[in-house]
Amino acid sequence: FPPDEVIRKRLLIDGDGAGDDRRINLLVKSFIKWCNSGSQEEGYYTQYQRMLSTLSQCEFSMGKTLLVYDMNLREMENYEKIYKDIGKDENIIAAAHEKISECKKQILQAKRIRKNRQEYDALAKVIQHHPDRHETLK
User: 1 pLDDT exceeds 60?
Assistant: First the structure.
């Protein structure tokens, strides 16, 4: 196998690369060796303590993995909630854009009315300078 393939296979087998698979295999081998050796052999108790230590490392790693898994589930729920909130916010933003466009239309209409009133006032001032129809007919 090329080196990249070996690394990839190890990561696939080992999961996150913490060595748990290798650690468990070594534990099984040392347990079998420990069982086959007699209790009179020196280092018997040391080997037993080493196996307990390896077992506790495996349990710790398993607990850590479970905590990470639970955290990932909570994060997924959180992201789904945020996604829904964003959807709601997008609806609110769309409604705000609609209201803004409506207000712009109202402003244009108000400007038009104001312009017309100013023209009416200007015409009324010009008309005021001329005599009314009754005076003109006399």
Answer: no
Question: DSSP label at 39?
Answer: T
Q: Which domain holds residue 80?
A: 3-94
Distance, in Å, from the CA atom of 30 to the CA atom of 48, rounded to the nearest integer, reads 9
Is 116 within a domain?
no
Residues with Cβ within 8 Å of residue 95, at least 6 apart in sequence = none
Q: Is residue 64 part of a domain?
A: yes
The answer to whether the pTM exceeds 0.90 is: no
The amino acid present at 29, given as its one-letter code, is K
Separation CA 42–CA 100 (nearest Å) = 86
Where b means 16+ CB within 10 Å and e means fewer, 19-44 reads: ebeebeeebeeeeeebeeeeeeeeee
Considering the domain boundaries, does residue 13 fall inside one? yes
Distance CA 28, CA 136 (A): 123
Of the two residues 102 and 19, the one the predictor is more confident about is: 102
Alpha helices (runs of H) in 16-43, residue ranges in sequence order: 20-36
- Determine, yes or no, domain membership for 10: yes
